[in-house]
Each structure stands twice: as C-alpha cells, then as structure tokens.
Amino acid sequence: MANLLVTGGAGFIGGNFVHYWAKAHPDDAIVVLDCLTYAGNRSTIAGVEQAELVVGDIRDTALVEKLLAERGISTLVHFAAESHVDRSISGPDAFIDTNILGTNSLLKAARKVWLDSGSGVPHRFHHISTDEVFGSLGPHDPAFSEATPYAPNSPYSASKAASDHLVRAYHHTFGLEVTTTNCSNNYGPYQYPEKLIPLFLLNALHGRNLPIYGDGMNVRDWLHVEDHCRGIEAALLRGKPGETYNIGGGEELPNMAVIDRICAEVDRAFAEIDGLAERFPDAPAAQRRPTAELKTFVTDRAGHDRRYAIDETKARAELGYVPAHDFESGLAGTLHWYLDNEAWWRPLVRA
C-alpha cells in the first residue's frame, strides 16, 4: 500500500490519473491537492472512494509539507499547471506563478519532509511535462527524444521548461528522487472544452464555427489520456530516479486531419444515435448537413509551433510502455463520452 499526493488531480490529465490509479491500485490512498481554478472540477473525481480532495494551492509550501508529513505520503505526482498556450500569450504571469513558483514550492516541501527531516523513507517526486519544451520541428526533422535540446517558444512552454530544470536540479543537487515525463497532445474524457478536440466536438453539437488556426497543417502527436496514465504508472514503478521519459501516442497528424475526423465522427453519431437531433437541434448534422460546413479559418496563433513529434524509444525499452489506443477508436470513444456525460460539460460552456 502506498500513499500518493496528486497535484492538479481534479483537472483533465490528473483526474484521469486518479481514476486510473484507483482502479489499478485499489489499496492505495490518494490525496488530491487542487485549487479548483476554471480547469479543476470536483465532479471529475466524484465517486473515487480512496481519493480525498484537499482544496489548496501548490504555492502554499506549509500546506504541502503538512500533507506529506501527516498523511505519510511517499509519492508525489505533479500535474498542477496552467497549460493553455493561448492563455499564456494573453496573460503569462499566471504561468510563471503556477508552473515555476508552484513547482519550486512542491520541491521545497518534498525536500524538507523526505530529506531534511532525516526520515529516510523511499520516495518519488514525479513531474508531468510536455513535448512543447523542445520547440518546433521542421517537416523532416527527427522526432523529439530525451536528448533534444530545450527551445520553448511560448510563455507556457517556457514556464514548463523552467519547472523541468528545477526538478532536475533538486535531484542532482539535493538527492531528491525524481522522474519526469514529457508527453504529447492528450485527448479523452474530462478535458476542459478550450482544447481542440472537446472545443470542436461541442461547437459542432451547437452549430458554432470550428476556428482553424492558419492553414490547419500544424502537426501534433496525439496521445489518449489513458495511455498517458499508463506511461506515468510505468515511470513510477520502473523509472530510474533522475531520468526523463517521453510518452507519446504514435499518432502524428496535422490539425486539419484531426478536425476532419471530428466532423466525420459527429456526422456518424447523428446518423446512428436516436434522439441526438432533438438534443442538439442547432448542429448541422441534425439537419443532415455536413458538420464540415462549420470549418472557419482564423488568424494564426502568435509564434505557433509547426510540428511536434515524440520518439518514445526509451520509454518502450526501459519502462515497457506501449500505447494501447489508436486515434480512430480513441476519438470515437471520446465523442461518445461527451455525448453520455453532458451533465459534466454543460456548466463549462456558454449557452
């Protein structure tokens, strides 16, 4: 039995991890620390019996120290982050505060409780990061590996790069047992509807424009969130302290291909599921028109990275990680989750 502290565990990836870990490790106790910003939602982890939600800020070092010490926590899994690139462009300060200062606060608390107190307990600080820290690839460049130099291009990715370096420094300077995973674009249940897939799914249901940046040919590697959780589990159980591992989905696709698949899945759902037209009468598909008519090109995002790709050779070889979801079935499952869980997302979208 282990006691885990999961920061940001009421968010998208963190919440999915809480569900995954509770099912895979039913004897473990999970403390979720989340300040419930716009992207945190109590309902995301409702029903997970061994998860206790503590509403608080990762920058509250004293609170983190108290939780680590009093709950006998030996594993800290750090998801909490500001993560939306567009928000980082319009307001970088929140990203500096949460992603850099917040991570430093957690590291300080972990060092004090796990190392300075002399308890000597085995421990692990696992940090979740992003492939965006590596910058942008050309069309024929090799995929990002763990040895790729950092070259972040947005305030978001720069703040995550800084936090990665802090985690590494606490290992090499103080001996804190850390691991880091850099993931590609996640999708799946419980994703806040500002990211591409849930935004376009819900816009399609409501007959709203599907805003496509630039020419729509920016390329991303798509990772189902459950596969990401499996990769984190593998890093926690088999990862070597001080190491980083890239976790990808093996599905490198241009945004336009993703958008076309979303449109096709929505059209298919309306053709096959009784009652959808009555539930969502503003959807083009409710009138047997193609969802693709909602596609609208908009001005490109400032500094928009052209291509990301993940080389997950190290994770496969050292952790035994292999993604289980292909994008086609993963996207279909995601659409059906949103259709079946309207009560979860309805309060998050404008009328």
TrEMBL record:
It comes from the Bacteria. InterPro entries: dTDP_Gluc_deHydtase, NAD(P)-bd_dom, NAD(P)-bd_dom_sf, Sc_DH/Rdtase_CS. NCBIfam families: dTDP_gluc_dehyt (TIGR01181). PROSITE patterns: ADH_SHORT. It is an enzyme of class 4 (lyase). Belongs to the NAD(P)-dependent epimerase/dehydratase family. dTDP-glucose dehydratase subfamily. Gene3D superfamilies: NAD(P)-binding Rossmann-like Domain (3.40.50.720), UDP-galactose 4-epimerase, domain 1 (3.90.25.10). It holds the Pfam family GDP_Man_Dehyd. It catalyses: dTDP-alpha-D-glucose = dTDP-4-dehydro-6-deoxy-alpha-D-glucose + H2O. PANTHER family: DTDP-D-GLUCOSE 4,6-DEHYDRATASE-RELATED. Residues 5-332 form the NAD(P)-binding domain. It comes from Alteraurantiacibacter lauratis. This is dTDP-glucose 4,6-dehydratase. Keywords: Lyase, NAD. Its cofactor is NAD(+).
